[in-house]
Amino acid sequence: MRVSDIMTRTVYTVSPDAPLREVATLICLHHISGVPVVDAAGQLVGMVSERDVLQALYPTYTELIDDPLRSRDFVEMESRYDDLSRRKVAELMVRHVVMAKPEMPLLEAASQMLRHCIRRLPVVEAGRLVGIVSLGDMHQALFAQYLGRK
After folding, report:
1. Is the CB of residue 46 less than 8 Å from the CB of residue 18?
2. Model's pTM, two decimal places?
3. What are phi and psi of 2, to 5 degrees?
4. Along the chain (150 residues), what's the average pLDDT of each consecutive run of 10 residues?
5. 121 vs 18, 97, 102, 139, CA distance in Å?
6. Is 46 exposed, middle or buried (0-12, 13-18, 19+ CB in 10 A)?
7. How many Å separate Cα 146 from the centre of its chain?
């Protein structure tokens, strides 16, 4: 089985200049955990996930050293969410993106995800985003093919 056999071809994306509020909206409305970031030409330039957004609420190492007590004020951290949601995607997106090609064997893509501790891979052909595949997609496809036949 190949990535192209199971990838989702309709992918929600954001631009690097979009506010994080747009990412949060897509994640919540479509029950997804991350969004590819593409430029105006459709070239993949990054990924931003719900983990990236939530991690931005926590204090940096410098903030933790400068004020260890305030750095553990979780109510205050939560209050920063509205300010955070106004920041640009480019500020939080991961720029070094692990990706798959459509012809990649499914288990090779899964090994990439496991090695890099990620749950989704954008599928790219000639630099352009053509789909996305998640660990859940892979598990369901493998289950259906090998275990669901009993």
Report:
1. no
2. 0.80
3. -110, 160
4. 95 94 90 92 91 72 63 62 74 93 95 93 92 92 76
5. 21, 8, 11, 14
6. buried
7. 28
Q: Which residues pair with 105 in a beta bridge?
A: 2
Q: What is the pLDDT of residue 83?
A: 63
91: how many CB neighbours lie within 10 A of its CB?
12
User: What is the pLDDT at residue 4?
Assistant: 96
CA atoms in the 13 A half-sphere facing the CB of 2: 8
CATH number at 75 reads 3.10.580.10
Q: How would you classify residue 11: left for phi > 0, otherwise alpha for psi between -120 and 50, otherwise beta? A: beta
Work out how many domains the chain is built from and give that number. Answer: 1
Single-letter amino acid code for the residue at 29: L
- Domain containing residue 22: 3-147
Tokens of 30: 């479509």
User: Hey, which residues does 82 pair with through a beta bridge?
Assistant: none
Tokens of 81: 């969410």
